[in-house]
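Run folding on both entries below.
>entry_1
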Amino acid sequence: MTITAIGPVSPIGPVAGPTAITPAGGASATGGTDFASALANGLDNVQQLQNKSDDLAVQAATGSLTDVHDYMIASTEASLATQLTVAVTNKAVAAFNDIMRMQA
């Protein structure tokens, strides 16, 4: 049995370097997004997951939901997203408190 080489592997896209924050606080020159918009998008995603879970819960309560597992999946996704958001918030607050305790 012989093994043949598959050839060199090329990158899929351009490799992004470190991003710089623009003075206006918007996207950087390399095309990245700023922290505030990434945070807002994440919170919007959590809200959408919670809304989907709530809608399916109402359908389950009224008897119009055909597949109960859809509600369970949506509920678990919303719960995990909320737990992740709380954990990230707690870490950010702890980091802020550590910075505030530093002596200059």
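>entry_2
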Amino acid sequence: MLYMIIEKYHPGKAKDLYKRFDEKGRMMPEGLNYINSWINEPVTTCYQVMETDSVEKIHEWINHWFDLADFEIVPVISSAQAKEKIFAG
């Protein structure tokens, strides 16, 4: 399953977040796969796509970062899958 993770940096914590990332990497558990990410222009929000069969893996990953950002987890499907879903019923 694919998930869009919306990561909103706590005010004044973006530099700390990037320092931790440089020192420790993403710190993702096995079974959670990073696909890609995009950052908004003011560098306050990161939009990431990840893949996993267990949303618990996302929560495990968030435990390494929750002191620096707030997270929203949104299950997503591709546009092609959405079209198929709409027309299948």
